[in-house]
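SAMPLE LOG
Freezer: B-3
Tube label: C17
Construct: single chain, 464 aa
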Amino acid sequence: MLPRIWFRITRYYRIFLAGPQWMPEPLFATRINRFYRSALLMAFVWCMGWYERIFSRPARILLIVFLVSMVFSLFSTEGTALFIIMSMLSGALADLIAGTVFLPRLGITRRIPRRGICGIPLSINYNIKNKRKHFPALDLLAEPYSMGRDFQRTDALEYFSIPAGGERDITVRLTPLHRGLCPLPCAMVESSFPFNIFKHAQRTGEKETLLVHPAYREMKSLLMHRSNGHGERRALQNNIFTGNHAAGENLNFNGCREYQPGDPPRRIHWMATAKRNKLVVKEFQQEQLPTAAVFLDSFHPMQTAGTFSWRRLYKEAVRDITTDVNRDTEALLSLGASLVYTLISSGVYISHYSWGGNVHLCPLNGQPADHLPEILDTFAFAEAERKDPLPQMIDATGKMQRELEELYLVLQRYDDEIHNWIAALKARKIQVRCILLSNEKFNGLPPDVIHLTIQDILGKQEKA
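STRUCTURE (predicted):
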């Protein structure tokens, strides 16, 4: 008996420390959520959560007026303050009774996308059913709470009603504000009927997480011109036929022949079959598809702590963690994601990709676009490294020099060691494109090195 009681106590205590499921965690709670949860702090978060869930914004203003009037009535002999108090209490009581009598019973289903892109609005779809057979559900609002530091609501708040026994589909547009795992509050619909004083909310499920990729866009100007024995680069969407063929190969139409046992039915050329009055199949010729590797420099040296000062302590205390991001790292990952997306859109297989010294191998099967989510998932969780990954990157390219055709390097510095490394790769007949991402000025850069600044990558995203 005691172990069962203790199990329930610990279970409810974990739920208590997790905080309300219907609201994003406040910024002061996210500072310590990885290591320690204060019970006193979470008690304050729960009080704040229920306060926002029960009272609407007009009611919070009226609550302040009510408290001021009540204090004034203690020192006044006139009945004006008492009249104001009784009027507000009457309106609040009428709202509470009417809202409870017509409390909607809803069936809520929420569908969120599997992945999102930082800075790009996404749609969250609600299907809401009114289970009451005689009363409509009035003044409803889906996803009523602010999204905190993870999302921004793109569209305006839309109140709607559902007739008795009816249902309605609602779409809510949210914009992810950063990459990585972004938590979403549980699915919730609230009703502010009749006077928008008390809110009557219904929720279902628990908090969910959405994987957000770095922001990217097509940047074809960064691609190398490819002209070799394999022919022009072709996009996969122009394929005539996609079937079970060798990894890294494309199939080009080569003519027709008579059907033979074992040929896939999808290869039957129906127009030629009708003309010849016998089964004819398409014949294809295999063509090697281009491959490329993308390496990103993940190095970000540790900043010196500096001397202690009260001003420095105050800045750390009021620091806004919503903007506490390493702009160099975010711009680097966004540029790398844009480069990978552009290569794949051009029909290029990504054979290897790396974040610093961590080199990942992509199997050359299926279509190039099949590997895009996997690569962007890796970039979504990437963090800056304090150790210089350049020796590991040089060693990795040396081990796979036979497999490399094109290599795209996105670096944050350019020195003699990098120059000699690129020269050695070119001497082995490997085509190399070096993209330097830095706000510093470099003199004497080779003409084939593309120099971009942080503002070139993040500036357009921030303006959008």
